[in-house]
C-alpha cells in the first residue's frame, strides 16, 4: 500500500510499508540530469552527485563512509538523463541516522574548491574508462546522434572540456535552481512506523527551500536519423540501431514492451536465437526501450567480428521486416505477457527496488501505479495493440545507427535487407 504526503515546502514523500522485512531503503530524488544541462555546463549534474560525498561542515568524506559502514548499511547515488538519486539501505532501526546523513550531504556539503579540482580528476578518469568501453560508447554515440538537436543527447558524464570551467559558484547556482523541495521526492520502502518516520523527515527536510521560478522542459523531442561511426582498434565492432520510441507515461509502452521481449529482450528472443544461438555470429545481441518526457527510443545492440558486420546487420533487418509483415503469434503474445509479469514481480522483491520504483514514478509522472494496476495493463494488451505499435515503431526508413570498431574512415552502414 503506497502513501503520499506533501510537506508545506512542496516536498513529496512516498512510502510503502513492508512489515515483514528488517530493512529500510530511502531515496532522495531530484528532477535534474543531463537533459537539464547545456553544452557549456554538460556533466554538472553528475559532478554535483560526486561532490556531495566529499564531506560536509560536520563530517569528512571518510567519516560519512565510516558511519554507514559502522551500521552495515549502504549509501550511494546515481545520475541519469532526467533525475539524480541519493539513496541508503540500512536496518530499520537505523533509519533516523540514514535520513540525517542524506540531509547533511544535501544541505551542508562543503563543496570546497580544492575538492572540486581533485574530483574532476576522478571524473576525467571515469570518462576515459567509458571511452574504453566500446559497447557503452556505441550507445552514447547513438544518443548524441539521434538527439543532436536536444539536450537529451548530451552525455551524462559530460566531457573534459565542459567540466573544466565548472567551479563552486556554478555548482551553487545550479543547485539553487534544481535542488529545491518542490523539485524533489523522498521515497521510502521497508519496515517503519509511519508517524515517527514523517516526524524525522519533517525535522530534517522541512526547511528545504522551494522555488516558484522552476520551469521544466516539456518540448517534444526531435529525432535525427543518420549513420555515425567511430574507428577504434579493437577486436569487435559494436552496432546500435535506434528507432523512435514511446514517451514516458503513455499506455503504448506496454505493447512495446511485449514486442521488445519477442524481438530481443530475452534469451529466447528472435534476435538472440537466430543470430547467436543458431548462427553463432555474435556473443551479445539484444534490444530494449527507453522512455523520457516527450519521447523515447527502441535500441538494438550487437557486438561481432568486423567481417560479420554486414551479415549481422542484414539478419537484424530481416527479423525487423518479418516482424512488420507477420507480427507476433498468439502464443508469443501470451508468452511475452507472462514473461513481463514475472520479471516485474520478481524485480519488486527488495526494498531497494520498491523504493526506486515508487520514487522515480512519483518524481517523473506524479503518479504511482500499484503492482495490480501494472499487471492489468500488461494483461489487457490485445493483438491489435501489438500490431499497431510494430507499424509505428519499426520504421525501417527512419533508423539511426552507430558503429564503433575497426572500420574504414568513411564507413557508412547500409540498411541491408
Automatic annotation (TrEMBL):
Stretches assigned to coiled coil: none
EC number: 3.4.24.55
Top EC category: hydrolase
SUPFAM superfamilies: LuxS/MPP-like metallohydrolase
Pfam family for this entry, one: Peptidase_M16
GO MF term list: metal ion binding; metalloendopeptidase activity
Keyword annotations: Hydrolase, Protease
Domain of life: Bacteria
Domain Peptidase M16 C-terminal intervals: 167-340
Residue ranges of domain Peptidase M16 N-terminal in the record: 12-159
GO biological process entries: proteolysis
Cross-referenced PANTHER family: METALLOPROTEASE (PTHR11851), MITOCHONDRIAL-PROCESSING PEPTIDASE SUBUNIT ALPHA (PTHR11851:SF49)
Annotated family: Belongs to the peptidase M16 family.
Protein name: Peptidase M16
Organism in which the protein naturally occurs: Clostridium formicaceticum
